[in-house]
Amino acid sequence: MSYDLVIFGGKICTAADTTFADIGIKDGQIVAIGRDLEHSGAEAIDATDKLVLPGGIDSHVHLSQPSGEGIVMADDFETGTRSALYGGNTTIMPFCLQERNDNLREALNAYHGLAEDQCYTDVAFHLIISNPDPQTLGQDLPALIAEGYTSIKVFMTYEALRLNDAELLAAFDVARRHGATMMVHCENEDAIRYLVDRHEAERRINPSAHATTRPIAVEREATHRALSLAEIVDLPIVIVHVSNGAAAEEIRRARGRGLKVTAETCPQYLMLTADDLDGMDWEGAKFVCSPPPRNAAEQQACWQGLMDGTFDLFSSDHCPFRYDSPHGKLNPKGAKNFRFIPNGIPGVETRLPILFSEGVNTGRIDINRFVALTATNHAKTYGLYPRKGTIAVGSDADLAIWDPDLERIVHHADLHDGADYTPYEGRRLRGWPVTVLLRGKVMMKDGVLLGARGDGVYLDRQPKAGG
Ligand code: URP
Ligand code: ZN
Ligand code: ZN
Question: Which ligand is the nearest neighbour of the Cα of 60?
Fold first, then answer.
């Protein structure tokens, strides 16, 4: 057999095992994994001394998302997917936001319009439901789930997005009956509101107040409540962006009761703390995200969860805003008040190098667990497996070739997103992707962009069996 491309000499790592073998690629798919394929390809890439991993899948990314009056997200589909690609990713899953007064299908059509012909990675959307009216829950959502939009996110916080408990139960019920995967942002909005009022009365309005108005109890309580509501409806759920040990403990307890829970954490909960929000001259705004980063002990608890299997997913929650911009974090709504700082930080390009450097190269996790946490489990959770997320005959040839010893210091100037800073500026990381292939096409090699805008496509998904 002859191949379009052969990758030879590398160490292939999947979630299951590690082998030295060559990969034969034809028509964008992996068609052979074996020995001595080197001379059977029209082209060949030498991966000697490198790791060959499935392209990363980042299942928690925000792009071009409406974020409140006067605020503009720093990445659209072009810049966001370009940045993701450089970070070793070949698929990302952004959120299509239904705002309170939106029709869900219209919101989705508009979002497809933003993505079309713009992407450097493949994409698939989650639906955010903020308007749980009869049209949405009774008509549009079931129809869209049947069309393959099989993952939904709901919020327990943010006044404009949150669902109350009755609404959560109603949304969960639709997900259960129609076979969708439900992601939940767990923070108690009423408790936050109470704390914000108290902080404002005391004129504690700097960025650090973002962390003290969203303490661990706010997240722990909401996590417990979301899990309890899911238990009542008998719905498997995904708890996203877990920031601390107490919330992780709620997840372990729920699993102990028999509930099927998938859990996600993110780089910010390993690398940042609430002290970062205390920066001079409003610089702390650069680290404002929800839930907020905690402290060293909670970082440790998140590492523990990655090591012991509590967490299944490691995602970026890339939600970029420029710092020095009238539409960003520096002076939101013309007021220096933490309440108005848009929530979210960039991180789609640094997610994988952070976990590789601080997880694999320190010995906390092995390379197979790295692949599971950053690709395979995302594909399995959101209906993309085995087309995506692994290296197997028949899978798309989405591959990232890594130099495990390449050291780089993170500087925003070297990244490829649309923001103007990275929360990880100056961090030294060891282990970076050097070549990324999307469906057999070399998209990035040694820092050079070889792919074209529009090479990434929208990934249709199948409704779940029985849904
Ligand atoms: O602060 C964050 N995480 N912003 C993004 C929206 C969300 O809740 O995921
Ligand atoms: Zn969230
Ligand atoms: Zn998010």
Answer: 3
Are 29 and 390 in contact by the 8 Å Cβ rule? The answer is no
CATH topology of domain 3-53+388-449: Urease, subunit C; domain 1 (2.30.40)
Of 73, 93, 75, 278, nearest in space to 181 by CA: 93
The finding on whether 290 has its CB within 6 A of some atom of ligand 1 is yes
Report how far ligand 1's centroid is from the alpha carbon of 97 (Å). 12
Write out the residue limits of the CATH 3.20.20.140 domain(s) in the chain.
56-368
DSSP H or E stretch at residue 206 = none
- Do the beta carbons of residue 74 and residue 346 sit within 8 Å? yes
d(CA 292, CA 260): 26
Query: Can you give the pTM of this predicted structure?
Result: 0.98
Give the CATH class of 56-368: alpha beta
Query: At residue 382, what is the residue type?
Result: Y
> In the predicted model, what is the mean pLDDT of the chain?
97
pLDDT band at 142 (very low <50, low <70, confident <90, very high): very high
Q: How far apart are CA 171 and CA 150, in angstroms?
A: 13
